[in-house]
Every structure is written in structure tokens, then in C-alpha cells.
């Protein structure tokens, strides 16, 4: 093979390696998770299963995490007027981080009839990672305050994570990979779907693009050395 052809071959291989790295590193994985809640209410224990969707979007130095319920949980023996019910919840962190994240949301915007499953509005909070890496987000305790009473709903089993997100700690570098895949059934919106959660201005893609550029430069440098060596040999 001539030296010009070898140079072109090395550059092409480097470009392909950079492209392969970009494809192989998913930024996030979401999966709608059925959570079997046991709710301790003022009139006894009630149970309900609701699919939970958690999505994340880059927000400044952290991430906005939003938790959605696709079905109502618990109920009230009397009507709850507009603004009478205030929900909040915790999300358990795992993987590269630990602890809990509290998410909150607005009170009910319409009256909730008696003995009707209570539809929880979307709850959100800001998560600031302490370490860079793949962090899992799993549904924790749901708290409903209404008419001076408090209802606490906890998962009866051990639900799986509803979101795995590759995060970047402030001042850290982006994680390149994680346990999740892009082929899951989890949505990033309350209506369901198979799209990935937003992860901000493509931090992982930028880091991997830089890696691909480094590989290209290394390949070009090697080809230049070979070309110079060939000319020296001919001389």
C-alpha cells in the first residue's frame, strides 16, 4: 500500500472509532415503573398501583427532576375543594450517588370528588450531583396533605429505578456510559413514549466528540510520521 493510501486509511479508521464511541454511550435510560403503594389515611390503609415516570433535564449546575403519576392513588371520603390537597414525594438515589431528593408540586387545580382516586400533579425538584457518573432515581414516599390531615403512601415492594441518568458534578467531567440502554420503554413525558430524557446541552456528546477529535489527531500524526519515514528511506 502506498503512503498516501495508508494515510487516508488511518484517518478513516480514526474517524470511525470516534463515531462508534458516540453511539456506544447512552446518556440516560428511562422506564415507566409500576409502584404498589400502601397509603396510611385518616380512615385506614388503602392500596393502589400507579405507573411512575421520572425524567431529568439539565438545569444550570444541576438537573431538574420531574416525577409523574399516570394513575390516581388513595382517595378521600369527602370532596376536596380546589387547592385543598398538597402533595410532595421523595426519590431515592442510587448508583454513583445516594440519599433522597424531595420533589414538590402545586395543589389540586380542580375539586376532587369524594371516593375518587386522587390524581397527583407532576412533582419536581433540583438535583445537584456530588459525583459524576450514572445515578438511578427510584420512587420513594408520597405525602398528601389535605384538610388538616396527612396521608403517607410508601411502596409495598422494591420498585426498580424509573430513571438512570449520567450526570456531571459541578467542576467534574461527564460520565461516558452507564447501566442503562436507549432501547427501554420508558418515556420522558407524562403521556408515555420511548424517547430519552433530556440531559441538557449534550454534555456526554461534547466529551466524546473531544475524544473522537483526539483519536483523529493521533491517527493523522502517526500517518505523518510514516510518510516522513518513507521519504527518508527513499532518500
Can you tell me about this structure?
This protein is of the alpha+beta class and 235 residues long. The chain contains two helices and ten strands. The longest helix has 32 residues, at 203-234. It is elongated, with a radius of gyration of 25 Å. 32% of the residues are buried.
Structural class computed from helices and strand pairing: alpha+beta
Helix content: 10-25%
- Radius of gyration, in Å, reads 25 Å
> How large is the share of residues in beta strands?
35-45%
Order of helices and strands: HEEEEEEEEEEH
Number of helices: 2
Distance between the termini: 19 Å
Largest sheet: 10 strands, antiparallel
Shape: elongated
Number of DSSP strands? 10
Uncertain segments: 13-25, 174-235
- Integer average pLDDT: 72
Kindly summarize this structure in a few lines.
The protein has two helices and ten strands; from the N terminus they run H-E-E-E-E-E-E-E-E-E-E-H.
Descriptive keywords:
23% helix, 36% strand, elongated, ten-stranded antiparallel beta sheet, alpha+beta
SSE diagram, text form:
Blueprint lengths: L2 H22 L3 E3 L2 E9 L2 E16 L2 E8 L15 E11 L3 E6 L18 E5 L5 E14 L2 E7 L7 E5 L35 H32 L1
Antiparallel strand pairs: 1-10, 2-3, 2-9, 3-4, 4-7, 5-6, 5-8, 8-9, 8-10
Helix pairs in contact: 1-2
Amino acid at each position: 500500500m502506498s503512503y498516501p493510501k495508508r494515510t487516508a486509511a488511518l484517518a478513516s479508521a480514526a474517524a470511525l472509532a470516534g463515531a462508534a464511541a458516540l453511539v456506544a454511550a447512552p446518556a440516560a435510560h428511562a422506564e415507566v415503573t409500576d409502584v404498589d403503594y400502601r397509603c396510611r389515611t385518616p380512615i385506614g390503609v388503602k392500596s393502589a398501583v400507579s405507573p411512575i415516570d421520572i425524567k431529568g433535564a439539565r438545569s444550570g449546575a444541576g438537573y431538574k427532576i420531574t416525577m409523574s403519576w399516570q394513575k390516581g392513588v388513595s382517595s378521600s371520603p369527602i370532596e376536596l375543594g380546589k387547592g385543598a390537597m398538597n402533595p410532595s414525594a421523595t426519590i431515592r438515589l442510587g448508583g454513583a450517588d445516594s440519599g433522597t431528593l424531595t420533589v414538590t408540586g402545586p395543589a389540586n387545580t380542580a375539586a376532587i370528588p369524594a371516593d375518587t382516586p386522587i390524581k397527583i400533579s407532576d412533582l419536581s425538584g433540583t438535583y445537584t450531583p456530588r459525583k459524576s457518573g450514572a445515578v438511578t432515581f427510584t420512587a420513594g414516599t408520597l405525602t398528601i396533605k389535605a384538610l388538616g390531615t396527612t396521608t403517607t403512601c410508601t411502596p409495598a415492594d422494591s420498585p426498580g429505578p424509573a430513571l438512570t441518568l449520567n450526570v456531571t458534578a459541578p467542576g467534574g467531567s461527564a460520565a461516558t456510559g452507564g447501566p442503562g440502554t436507549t432501547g427501554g420503554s420508558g418515556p420522558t413525558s407524562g403521556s408515555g413514549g420511548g424517547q430519552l430524557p433530556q440531559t441538557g446541552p449534550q454534555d456526554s456528546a461534547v466529551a466524546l466528540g473531544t475524544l473522537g477529535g483526539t483519536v483523529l489527531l493521533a491517527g493523522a500524526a502517526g500517518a505523518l510520521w510514516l510518510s516522513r519515514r518513507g521519504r527518508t528511506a527513499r532518500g
